[in-house]
Amino acid sequence: MSTASHIEIKPSVLYVGTPVMLISTENADGSTNLSPASSYWSLGQMLVLGLLADGQTAANLTQRPGLTVNFPHPKLWQHVEAIADTTGATPVSAAKAARYVHEKDKFGCLGLTPQASELVTPPRVQECALQFEAMVRRTTSGVGDYLMVEAEVLRVYASPEIVVPGTNHVNPQAWEPTIYSFRHYFGLGTEHGFRPTSDTAALTAFSPVP
C-alpha cells in the first residue's frame, strides 16, 4: 500500500482497532446490566473505559463501583451486536428513543451465562475466555457525551486453553479477542512479531513471518 501521498479525511469514529468488551454492572434493584463497549486502554492494573454518559452502565458505576469486564471471542460478535442498541435504562431517554429499546435481562436475551464473581457483585460472562473483576476508582464527566471511568483490576480469570501451561501468561497465539475497527468486527490475523519484553515469545516458539 502506497503512502506517497495522503488526503485529509474526517471519519465519524476513530475506532482504528480496539477490543470489544461486555461490561457487567449492578442495577439499583440488584439485577445485572450487561453492555457492550469498545473504548478501552490499560496501564498497569488500571483500565480506562469510555462510556456513554447517559447509559445505564455509566449510571450504575457512579453509584455502585464494582464491575466485570469480559472479552468475547470473535464467534460471539453477533451476541455483542444483538444488544448494541438496547439499554437497561427505563424509561428510555428521549435522546436514545429513536435507536435504543429497553432490555432488562440481557444475559437471558443473548443466551449467555452469568458466572458468579468473587470480589465484586456483578457476574462475569462464562462464555468469555478472559474476564476481569474491577472496581471504579475515579470517573470524569464532561468529555462530550461520554464518561471516562478509571477502574482497578482486582482479579483476572482465563480459560486454561489460552494460558501458557505452568505460567500466569495469556498465550497470544491461543487467545483471540474481538477487534472493533470502524464499526466492523474482526478477529486477529497473522502474527508478525513481538516486543523483546514479551512474556510469552520464548514459551510459544514463535517465529516472525518473513
From TrEMBL:
PANTHER family linked: FLAVOREDOXIN (PTHR43567:SF1), FLAVOREDOXIN-RELATED-RELATED (PTHR43567)
Alphabetical list of SUPFAM superfamilies matching this protein: FMN-binding split barrel
- Family recorded in the similarity comment: Belongs to the flavoredoxin family.
The name this protein carries in UniProt is Flavin reductase (DIM6/NTAB) family NADH-FMN oxidoreductase RutF
Q: Which UniProt keywords apply?
A: Flavoprotein
Flavin reductase like domain location is 16-187
Statement: the UniProt record of this protein carries the keyword Flavoprotein: yes
The question of whether Flavoprotein is a record keyword is answered with: yes
List required co-factors.
Answer: FMN
One Pfam family from the UniProt entry?
A: Flavin_Reduct
